[in-house]
Amino acid sequence: MKRGGALTAKLAGGVSLAVLMAAPAYAQEAGADTPEGEIIVTGIRASLERAADIKREAGQVMDVITAEDVGKLPDANVAEALQRVTGVQITRVFGEGQSVSVRGLQQVRVEVDGRTLLGWSARLSPPENDQLGRSSGLDSVPSSLFGRLEVRKSPLASQAEGGLGGTVNLVTPKPLSFKEPTASLRVQGVYSENSDKFEPAITGFATTKFADDRIGIMIAGEYQKRTSVTQAFERNNFLNRNYAAGGDTIVQPTPALLQYEQFTVDRSRLGLNGAIQFEVTPEFTLTADALYSKLKTGRRQDFFAFRLPTGANPVTDAVVEDGMVVAGNANGTVTTAGQIRNEPTESFLYGLNGKYESGGLTIEADGYYSKGTIDQTIQIITLQAAAPVPGAFDFRDNTIPSLTLGGTFDPADYASYNPANNGVRSNRLIGLLEEWTGKLDVSYETGGGVTIAAGVRYTDLHARSNAYRSQVTPTPDEIEPFLNLVDPRDFLPDIAGSFPRGFLSTAPTFDYVFTRAQAAEPNPDANGRSTLLPNLQRDYDFSERTLAAYLMVSGEGEILGMPYKANAGVRIASTRLSVDSYVNVGTVSTLRNDKNRYTNVLPSANIAFNVTDNFLVRVSGSQTMQRASIADLAPSTFFNATNLSVTGGNVNLKPPISTQADVSFEYYTGKSSLISGAVFYKDVQDFIASFVTTGVDLDLDDQGRELTFSRPENLASARIKGFEIGIQQFADFLPTPFDGLGIIANYTYSDSEDNAGFPLVAVSKNSYNLVGLYEKGPFSARIAYNYRDEAVFEFSEGRPSFIGARSQLDAQLGFDLTENFALSLQAQNLMPKKSATSEYSNFNPTALNSYALSERRFSVGVRAKF
Question: Cβ(678)–Cβ(663) under 8 Å?
Answer without folding.
Answer: yes
